[in-house]
Automatic annotation (TrEMBL):
Keyword match Phosphoprotein: no
SUPFAM superfamilies: Integrin alpha N-terminal domain
Gene3D superfamilies named in the record: Integrin alpha, N-terminal
InterPro entries xref list: FG-GAP (IPR013517), Integrin_alpha_N (IPR028994)
Name of the protein: VCBS repeat-containing protein
Amino acid sequence: MEDSTIRGRLAGFRRRLLVWSTGIVSVAVLIVPNAAFARSDDGAEAASPQQVPSGAYDYNGDGLADIVARRNSTGALEVWPGNGNSGFGTRYTVGFGWNAMNLIETAGDLNGDGLADLIAREASTGRLYFYPGNGSTFSPFQSIGRGWEVMSAIVSGHDYTADGNVDIIAVEAGTGTLWLYPGTGTGVTFAPRLNIGSSWNQLHELTAVGDTNEDGHPDVVAVRNVADCMYFYAGPGSEKFKPGVLFDCGWDVLEGAAAVGDFTGDGHLDWVGKDPDHNHLYLFHGDGTGSFFSSPVIDYGWNSMTIA
Ligand SMILES: [Ca+2]
Ligand SMILES: [Ca+2]
Ligand SMILES: [Ca+2]
Ligand SMILES: [Ca+2]
């Protein structure tokens, strides 16, 4: 039975969805005013927008952002090609055996060859693997290393050190430390890791959404365990994220949040997530300020899928 608190959170989440479904698409869903995202005016030269590296989410080589997901019943890994307008083309299977993995994440172009890649963690060993995209499927995997079982979240796809190489960030479950693993452009080797934050084990659904506020530095969103409130963390371009800015609360119904790049084709980065209660896949439609518009249902039946 849902208690009244849970019902209230669910109601809040679904109210946001209703805003979209009733066609009032111009109504932003966020409580936080855009001023909260105002860029610092310290006289520094404005960074050129680098929302997402070329090809970071394009797995089939057509220039449009795609979703990769595992079909949990069979362990098949599937590419769901985006059509550039919030929908999908014909999905295809790129491999089997992916139920051996307990983490699958988009990695952007981790090895710098212009093609979107994946990382995945093997459940039995804790080893993290790099799967280089080849423009349609994946080339043979390579090992990044052991010991990743201590991480509660591992995300990638963006360059947080501003050196041109895509990096990995990960949350150590036991300590809450947020670690940055500076990429070297190879996909498998990294510079010594950096401690860039604490208490990140008090959050879930960490999602490397990219530069959603379009200031030139990649950002993340995550949900704090307390009251399931979602926060936006702006990337300052110098490793550490800025303090979180509250979106709103009631995100306990969100699962499997994942970055997708610009899935709508409007030039702004978006992200997706599942509502398992209704077996819906939602698209959170970035507006270029770090916030987003209401989340249309773009597909159904995704409870059986694990989104990379
Ligand atoms: Ca594509
Ligand atoms: Ca690549
Ligand atoms: Ca980097
Ligand atoms: Ca940013």
